[in-house]
Amino acid sequence: MANPIKEKTPDLDETEISRLRDAVLKWVEAKKQVPVSQPKPSVKKPVSPKPSSAVLKPAPKVLVKPAVSNQPPKIALPEPDKKISLPSPRPKKRLKKIIAALIALFIFSLVIFGVGLYYFKWQNQFTKAVTKFIPYPVALVNWQPLFYYTWQDQVDTLWNFYQREGANDSSLLIPSYSETQKHIIDRMIELSLMNQLADSYGVSVSAAEVKEYVDSLIKEIGSQEALENQLKDLYHWSLDDFQHEIIEPVLLKNKLAIAIVLDDRINKEAHAKMQEILETLRSGEKTFEELAEIYSEDVTALQGGDLGYFSRGQMVKEFEDAAFNLKPGEVSDIVKTQFGYHLIKVEEQLLDENETVVQVRAKHILIRGVDFNQFFENFRNQAKVWRFVKI
User: Fold this and answer.
1) For an engineered disulfide with 237, which of 147, 201, 241, 342 has Cβ 3.0 to 4.6 Å away?
2) What tens digit of pLDDT does each residue of 64-89 get?
3) So where are the chain's domains?
């Protein structure tokens, strides 16, 4: 039986076959002339093209190589028409100028304010507030500054006290404000010199000594509360202020006076004089009483140096120890106390039932050491003092 499909397919002659082949070849040539787009770089490995037919040429492999340049790598290259923005040094220079200007302004303000204080004598709450934080000096004492705020504060305190006293008693002679200013600055200079002198002698006031002094005042007044109320009403001071401003300087001056008198370096003349008196006494040329009348610098000189009877605790320790260790008729060696140099002669001893000496009757010769006030005056005259305020 014949195939129906084959029966319907017409036979192709050679001409048609040739035309079909030519058409296929033209189509292939047309495909070869179409430009092939470059493949984009991919993280995948390039696939090698499979070999084509003899008619098609294999496509070359595309390798993406990193660009090699002689220039150093640049980050975020700007567009050609834009300038590269580098950090400008101008802000730093501007900041330095601002700081320099502020410093100059501050110094200028200090100078102007100083002129107001020292030349125009500004005195108000504003100047007091400023000088509390800026340490303007009111004076220099041997190159140690005394501060304006301290001076002004003490002037105000004393001036207010004078005003209240004057209001309570119109007959009182009240110092003027300028006299008050001068008094305070003189006192500050004196205390500064005294502290410097005390430092050179190693003299200081302990807290226990201050407390002992305060306790004695409290005992006199009646109570600590009464003392504090008096200080507050009169001076606007606390108890601590009173201790610092009054008690400590008083105690320091007393201890310094003793240290000066006990200093053999500045009391050579007094010691040498007492040594001559002792040698005269031992030689028998004059009696103790005669030498006391001639040389002693105590009020007992006219009585031949007679002190009468005294018990332990009535004399300073050095004098007491020497007197109670002597027998009647004996004369001591030179005894140094805070008053100067002594020779002591015991006339009589009083004993208790236990044969213990309870009292002695003695005479003495006193040669005083350097007077503290005169010594301090000389020290002050030799000091370098500059005052910056006009009064």
Assistant:
1) 241
2) 455 555 555 555 555 555 555 555 66
3) 123-261, 268-369
